[in-house]
Design brief:
The chain has three domains: about 55 residues, no CATH class; about 70 residues, no CATH class; about 220 residues, Rossmann fold, CATH 3.40.50.150. Helices cover about 35% and strands about 25% of the residues. Strand 8, helix 7 and strand 9 form a beta-alpha-beta unit. GO terms for molecular function: methyltransferase activity.
Amino acid sequence: MEAKTAKTGSRPEVGLAALARARDLLGTADHYVVVDGTDWYRADAGIQRLVRVDGPEPPPYGGRGEIADVDFAVALLSDELWKVADRHRGGERPIDPEEFLKLAGFRTHTGAWVPIRKETLWQARRRALVDFERRGREGGLFTSHKTIARAVAELAGAKLTEDLLDPFCGAGSFLWDAVELAQRNGTGLRVARGYDLDRRTVDVARSIAEVSPVPVEVVAADALEADLPRSACVVSGPPFGLRFSEPHELMDGSKTRNGDSLLLDRLLRLLKPGGRAVLHLSLNITFRADVESYRRYLATHFRVAAILGLPNGAVPGANVRTVLMVVDASEPGDTFVAQLGEDWETQLAPDGAALQAALKHIDGERP
């Protein structure tokens, strides 16, 4: 049903054009014009004429409909996110996770609540949040570029058979794409876990995890201090450019204050034997002189399966060059290396040449 309110004193026919547009956009079936909030007119099937009625007719089967169209649900949730942001603009918490959690449907002109189907809500919450973040930083939540999140999932795909971990999950971009791919391909992923320092970000990630088809646990914790479980697959985009006041010892016995190498070391320590890490890292991990001994250690103790260089612009709001690195906790082997240019999004699309070439090198021909 779609209802259009006409101004006092206007002819109800002025609402016909708006009803026709709503039908074309939303696929609605019953259409009404309301004058002064009390006088109801129902449109015919072609939305050409109006007939005065006592009020809206209840839909068949008790009106227990659900929103199933993902694009429509994303549009509704995005609109509500911006309304929430406007209400909180200038405050310390522009987006309240509790309000985001409530965005699970919409209320019609007549006051009826129409829920979003759970399977649809799982996709719509993720897309609405990412779109909101890319249009502006009002939310204050970290989300990765959707092309990178999707590529990380594809590169991890063959190892999404047991458990999944992101120790620096932000709002969960890498987790959600990996879970979706695992579900689509039937890989048998049983559980996913995410950790992040920011409690507000964790709350938003939990609101998405609530409707995930795979159990997802999101914890507010410091990944460098917490006792994290070892996992068969680790995906993550840790913070760039950190420097610690005290040196930390790496797996090769060297010590460093450099956050990029320290976080890489922490992530690789979390792999189970035979597991895989797919990481979005600062480019300097590949060339800094003070990381040379650690790179040699990785090359002789892990399989550094692929390194895909990304240009500036791959990280929203940051002028930094980065790489996607795939590391298996297995016997060393050759590394697939590619530096992507301005068409990096095309190259990393599911059917992109660079992604397909990397997957062929890492996992062999797909069945």
